[in-house]
Amino acid sequence: MTSRLLTACGIAGPGAFVAAWVVDGLATSGCSPVEQTISQLAREGARTAPLMTAGFVSFGLLVPAYAWALGRELGARPAQLAATVSGLATLGVAALPLSRAGGQPVDTWHAVAAGTGYVAQALAPLLGARALGRARTASYAVSAVAAAALAGSVLVPELAGGLQRVGLTAVDAWFAAVAVHLLRRR
Question: What is the pTM of this model?
Answer without folding.
Answer: 0.94
